[in-house]
């Protein structure tokens, strides 16, 4: 039995932070960072059966084109992702009354719809990128004793940086996700793919300097731009994807991260119409989730 200090439940039996009960989430789950974006997505549903808000965690469950969907906000960063993914998993894979892991486990399909800054100058503002892998520079997954998946990428990156006479502020871990089947949709197959760097913060961890210096300085960012490993390069920087990929892999779930590129760090530009880019991202995500007849078998 899982002790009450480890699996904390509210008086109504809901999980501690999300305030959700078993049965209130779908198996197909969209995650967003911004709590206000939850309603932007659920307003496109045919119906909404559940609305729950607790702190930065807002959850709506409903139906679109006959497909039951949940959209939930994580807030910013992998520290919040840690809460959300563990509690979502508990809702489907732990008997909360008996406090025991279920004999038969449920696999969730997780789709992150987020915004990001492009690292490569050739990536157009407003374009949508699929994270084929995530480079963790945030520090979450070592606490789970989880090594990277496909971590030759991380090792090769460290060696490349060292060969250029530089050093990364933290040792990276690389996570390659088990992608949901809906990415076999033609619209999913056409998406540009790259490796997402997940940072521990917005300023120095992403190479920004206001009053304090950053160890992710321009020379190091240039080396990261030039790195290419078996056709994969580091394309963008954000704050959640590696946590989602790492935890989803460890818990046995499928996950994918789509990013609308609102800034280009290489070119020093920012989108003039970020709302349109986010709308296009939401529309694409919902198409992938609901148009399963348009998907092809996994290769």
Automatic annotation (TrEMBL):
Alphabetical list of SUPFAM superfamilies matching this protein: Purine and uridine phosphorylases
Enzyme class: transferase
EC number assigned by the record: 2.4.2.3
One GO molecular-function entry: uridine phosphorylase activity
Pfam families in the cross-refs: PNP_UDP_1 (PF01048)
Superkingdom: Bacteria
Record field: catalytic activity: uridine + phosphate = alpha-D-ribose 1-phosphate + uracil
InterPro entries reported in the protein's UniProt record: Nucleoside_phosphorylase_d, Nucleoside_phosphorylase_sf
Domain Nucleoside phosphorylase per the UniProt entry, residue ranges: 29-265
GO cellular component, one term: cytosol
GO biological process per UniProt: nucleoside metabolic process
Protein name according to UniProt: Uridine phosphorylase
Organism encoding this protein: Neolewinella xylanilytica
